[in-house]
Amino acid sequence: MDAQELKQVIGAGLLSFPLTDFDEQHDFNKSSYRKRLEWLKSYDASALFAAGGTGEFFSLAKDEYADIIGTAVDECRGQMPIIAGTGYGTRVAIEYAVEAERQGADGILILPHYLTEADQEGLRRHVVAICKSVSIGVIVYNRGLCRLNAETVEKIADECPNLVGFKDGFGDIELMMSIRSRLGDRLAYIGGLPTAEVFASACKAMGVSTYSSAVFNFIPRTAVEFYNASVNNDSATMDHLLKTFFFPYLELRNSGQGYAVSIVKAGATVVGKTAGPVRTPLCDLSPAQHEQLRTLIDRLGPQ
Amino acid sequence: MDAQELKQVIGAGLLSFPLTDFDEQHDFNKSSYRKRLEWLKSYDASALFAAGGTGEFFSLAKDEYADIIGTAVDECRGQMPIIAGTGYGTRVAIEYAVEAERQGADGILILPHYLTEADQEGLRRHVVAICKSVSIGVIVYNRGLCRLNAETVEKIADECPNLVGFKDGFGDIELMMSIRSRLGDRLAYIGGLPTAEVFASACKAMGVSTYSSAVFNFIPRTAVEFYNASVNNDSATMDHLLKTFFFPYLELRNSGQGYAVSIVKAGATVVGKTAGPVRTPLCDLSPAQHEQLRTLIDRLGPQ
Amino acid sequence: MDAQELKQVIGAGLLSFPLTDFDEQHDFNKSSYRKRLEWLKSYDASALFAAGGTGEFFSLAKDEYADIIGTAVDECRGQMPIIAGTGYGTRVAIEYAVEAERQGADGILILPHYLTEADQEGLRRHVVAICKSVSIGVIVYNRGLCRLNAETVEKIADECPNLVGFKDGFGDIELMMSIRSRLGDRLAYIGGLPTAEVFASACKAMGVSTYSSAVFNFIPRTAVEFYNASVNNDSATMDHLLKTFFFPYLELRNSGQGYAVSIVKAGATVVGKTAGPVRTPLCDLSPAQHEQLRTLIDRLGPQ
Amino acid sequence: MDAQELKQVIGAGLLSFPLTDFDEQHDFNKSSYRKRLEWLKSYDASALFAAGGTGEFFSLAKDEYADIIGTAVDECRGQMPIIAGTGYGTRVAIEYAVEAERQGADGILILPHYLTEADQEGLRRHVVAICKSVSIGVIVYNRGLCRLNAETVEKIADECPNLVGFKDGFGDIELMMSIRSRLGDRLAYIGGLPTAEVFASACKAMGVSTYSSAVFNFIPRTAVEFYNASVNNDSATMDHLLKTFFFPYLELRNSGQGYAVSIVKAGATVVGKTAGPVRTPLCDLSPAQHEQLRTLIDRLGPQ
């Protein structure tokens, strides 16, 4: 898939990141992961991010990463584009990106570099170097230590035709508006805050027309229902789901640091599609929290 | 005007805060302020905040405050509702609120308390006490040290029928969505970030249907044009104004701390409606910055 | 007391801020406050801050403030210097400072301005204007919105001979070291973080030779004991008190926002020297928390 | 070297992290790195951190890392202990730690995990897992996403006898004091803020008796002079060096994000011991900034 096709795909519908399955020894569970993809691709999403944030990219060894991307590509071939996460410092990020392209991924999502502060010029060089290391399309994720401003995003886009997407993980309205104002249709925009549904309306109004849904991992029907409501400006449905599910869910999620991922894994377990435990430094939800989550999920009816 | 009428007024159109005029000795310049109100009320705004943030509430002595509110009420009587700022600790905030009501203000805007951290219960008691000290409508401003969550806003609204508005100064999408989800039509919502136009689309999508425009102080025709474009979902007009005026303006504004107010006073001077200097701890823009601002304003054509 | 005398006093020993007494209606309780001062001045402190942060300066009306400063000056005349808090915007801060001097205060402590961001030049003008409004000595408090850098402090000190003290409320080692390096003995330095005892060793090593003790309000003997241990580099005593009292106390204090003041008022109540309730937006500790505090205090033995 | 020996070494003197040498293609320059170590080990430091923060750990590929640690161990064998950085998620951090031990490193420094928030329990498990993966001594670095509190550090120390050091990268006095109060002599404490000399006095007063010097890379004689002054409480020498070198140096360093490392590489170039360019996302200092730095260095005289 070339970069422009990827851009079309991103803009065309809901995105999601599958969880990465671990067994009881916390090793990658390939067969379970394969089943997960088989299940998820039957729902109406337009692409999957393999080994993204919700897929615990930050906890994977390099060889596991290759296995995960390869499995996802193999399982979804011809049915669902796979976008692979990359991250860390420039050299390591390039190693991951090149590996992902080699495995057949349709695009790359650049997660932030590691540890050090950097200025706009340094960030620009870092992102440009990764873009140039592959021929497939690239999405850059503004998050954490990587806070690109509009001018920098424009410079990168000018230099790298395969930069086709911008994912926002800050929710800073002024920043997002300035990027959208400057870059316009040059990029596709993706909402990338945890529990993106809460941000969907505001983001859409800023030209961020899609988002990646984490809850798609355990309530895919509801995730699609919400997304369609967003597309169709059906605020009654959105308001209802926000009130009855998403805000109570946020309360649970916000009760622990790092729960943005852990609660998704808990949700998968609750609905009988367990992906196993999270890896450290994350912690799994307690049994009592699992039950609270079950109550919220049950209210939504069958998926 | 009773509280429910105020709520209607807030929801009905553009809001603005007039600058407070100072003379060369930095004293309140009543005649200049009166002329400013006379000018501004000829434009299509639905209410004015007197002695709000842009009116340098934070720099006014108590007796000046009374004079300012009295002047605004007197000048705009029957033509434009006046909402008066209040702030500081509970007792002082009540003194200001009571004074404003005595002067004939149509509503109160509660700016944050001073200096100390406080928990939700303490904030609740603080806001409730102010609401109960007046019979006119009240708007609470979430900003700085006052970060009310949805549950607290709901408790205050339940206890205080005259709390009719919520003004958001954080731009935290999750927080704003949770408040809107919980309170719904119980309150009118106002965008309250500096240069609110940049936030207008995102805010409107969150149910924050109006905002207070600072640039109304020097480009009132453009401010109204932008507001009408927002109401009518005319994104072409909004995008054009954002690109040609607002983002370059932000760059200038963001070049100094405290410029969010100083630049508005500079704008008034540039268009021949000077409100005099700002008071410390603010600083006026430099002559070179005045010229940069003039260039931006001139592009917009006659106001 | 002239400014240089004040500087000597500050450097000579422990400082403290007495609580402000309120009755059950939350009104200023003058007779109770007078007794508090009578009690506290019998201990070995070198000056008292009346209507400072722990004295709930941020919750006082102007007329109460005058009464409090007047009472403190009257009660301590010839026995204990009184330094009066001031704060808010420039004009209001000057009103308070002038009132304090009129009431006979020996010095002024400038708490931060209100609400707005400001750059270094604006802060400089603000502090200079307050210094010039009085002839007594002034201490500036770096805290919250007022973050003066070394260059700005130097400019103010050059222009205002009566600026004799710098109180640090940030605990930013690089900032404090840069100020100390640039200003040297021109100023006296005071540690101004909540529960200053925890910071005493580090501060002393940075040339911040004294601090204002909040716990002096309820365990004055222990506060003096700790201070003397600090002066004498008696780390065994300091370590013991930190471990057995101060760190468990911090845990309780950190359990609520705004508790830095509330817990001191709770302590006064526990030891039979109640100063009444706190004012909103603060909240009093719960009865259970009072008991936890009592346990910690009892361990210290008679005061 | 067993863990207890490492602890003794840490406590015994100045530490430093050598830069990692890159050639013009930004590849690891082994011969240049070897010469650097040969030079640095002739000065009086007690251990070197290879591939630490100043050594651009965050930019190294795995195979380069092995080469760097191996080279450092080989070059310094029997003369200077080598402590190797590790970091990222648990599995990757263990891979690096095991590799370092295999290469003969004398200890491990754990830099923070990557990207995700985590609670204390998750952090604990992460650090414990790394400690248990090696038999050599371990130092944990509190920085960025890894903010261990005193209780968590104590739990890790209880479970892992080879945790022998704690390096502080926050400069939060309350946190550091609470850790020192709880752990006492169980650990050796290292100051780990950029340009650690500025923090030396305050840290020493908190029981943080040593630090790792970055400027040792280009002014080793001065770095040792400052360290000795610190050990001997020679505040005149420290104050003089702070005023004439370190604060002007900080001003330059603070002029760019990420300059904490770049300026050290610039310093090495200035003194004729170039380590080549920094890798992205860092940027090298401009020629003008190099000249400013040269002026500062020249003032110090021969090294």
UniProtKB/TrEMBL annotation, chains A, B, C, D:
<keyword id="KW-0456">Lyase</keyword>
<protein>
    <recommendedName>
        <fullName>Probable 5-dehydro-4-deoxyglucarate dehydratase</fullName>
        <ecNumber>4.2.1.41</ecNumber>
    </recommendedName>
</protein>
<feature type="active site" description="Schiff-base intermediate with substrate">
    <location>
        <position position="167"/>
    </location>
</feature>
<dbReference type="GO" id="GO:0047448">
    <property type="term" value="F:5-dehydro-4-deoxyglucarate dehydratase activity"/>
</dbReference>
<dbReference type="InterPro" id="IPR017655">
    <property type="entry name" value="Dehydro-deoxyglucarate_dehyd"/>
</dbReference>
<dbReference type="Pfam" id="PF00701">
    <property type="entry name" value="DHDPS"/>
</dbReference>
<comment type="similarity">
    <text>Belongs to the DapA family.</text>
</comment>
<dbReference type="GO" id="GO:0042838">
    <property type="term" value="P:D-glucarate catabolic process"/>
</dbReference>
<dbReference type="InterPro" id="IPR002220">
    <property type="entry name" value="DapA-like"/>
</dbReference>
<dbReference type="InterPro" id="IPR013785">
    <property type="entry name" value="Aldolase_TIM"/>
</dbReference>
<dbReference type="GO" id="GO:0008840">
    <property type="term" value="F:4-hydroxy-tetrahydrodipicolinate synthase activity"/>
</dbReference>
<comment type="pathway">
    <text>Carbohydrate acid metabolism; D-glucarate degradation; 2,5-dioxopentanoate from D-glucarate: step 2/2.</text>
</comment>
<feature type="binding site">
    <location>
        <position position="54"/>
    </location>
    <ligand>
        <name>pyruvate</name>
    </ligand>
</feature>
<feature type="active site" description="Proton donor/acceptor">
    <location>
        <position position="141"/>
    </location>
</feature>
